Amino acid sequence: MPFGPVGGRAPGRSVGGPEVIDVVAIAVEELRKHYGPVRALDGLSFSVAAGEVFALLGPNGAGKTTAVEILEGHRRRTSGHVRVLGYDPATGGREYRERIGIVLQEAGFDEAFTVRELVRFYRGGYPRRLVVDDVIDLVGLGGKRDARVQTLSGGQRRRLDLALGLVGDPELLFLDEPTTGFDPSARRRAWDLVETLRDLGKTVLLTTHYMDEAEHLADRVGVVVAGRLIACGAPDGIGGQARASSEVAFRLPDGVAVAGLPDLGGPLVAQGAGWQVRTREPTAALHRLTGWALERRIVLADLRVTRPSLEDVYLELIGAEGTPDEAPVVGTGVS
Predict the structure, then answer these.
(1) Where in the sequence is the domain holding 266, given as residue range(s)?
(2) pTM
(3) Which of 181, 212, 233 is the last residue of a domain?
(4) Which bin fits 210, alpha (ψ -120 to 50), beta or left (φ > 0)?
(5) Most buried of the four, 70, 146, 194, 292, by CB within 10 Å?
(6) pLDDT attached to residue 14
(7) Whole-angstrom distance, CA of residue 26 vs CA of residue 29
(8) What is the model's pLDDT at position 180?
(9) CA distance linking residue 189 with residue 109, whole number of Å
(10) Beta-ladder partners of 201
(11) Beta partners for residue 247, in sequence order
């Protein structure tokens, strides 16, 4: 693999206490961006460790893209403090831009270029350069290296976006909805690529509406609503009380009355042909339920215990903030 090394220790973690970051790649404090009376960002603060994959989540209009554009140096902030790789993006200039890679939601290409020609052209703008054909192979476009851009499918163009963001061997990569339009196989390859970047010490900031993508890739996630950070932490740790409860679900045999069930630590709710209870003590609830069933020689069909997914917690968080009901994308997102 032709990527160069990047200094910095593994990212710190927060478990029930203040966040600890060993080497900071991105530091954002009280970031604000106003457009007249509209506050796109309203005191946003977070940090990203060197070598960390950090995902920004939030509904459309939450301010994610505005924040990322400020970090990239493409948009001026109204107020607040921002440092990325030790630079203020607003004044870092060419020296700063040479150390980052950017993959936009949509990029305009010259349709007459071939894939190889375009990657080679972008490569010329960086002092640290990767081998063109290696990058093309890395993003899964080896069979299209001599194809004109105009002949590429939407998913193939997204892979080309990735190649252009990587060819300068960046220390920090911004990925804005990186797998939109990918089929399931291409998404998995993109995930493998991001994991490879992490293993090599690269820092990745990504935005995505795919909850499974954030859960799979991110060391930490930050949820942004109305220009403010409302939650931040490991994908399996954010959400506070929402994460503390689990769901015990089961189905009773015909003729067995639900009224005879023991106290399971929460209200029973009908779920299709079965029942479910949400509880902060799933082990105790399961013990009481299975003990009751064994005593009566009752078989509980479809018995399962599940914790809230990142999607569940995300929807609860943005719902608590009074945001419009907008479901995240879950699954393959095939277009």
Answers:
(1) 246-307
(2) 0.76
(3) 233
(4) beta
(5) 70
(6) 38
(7) 10
(8) 77
(9) 23
(10) none
(11) 278, 306
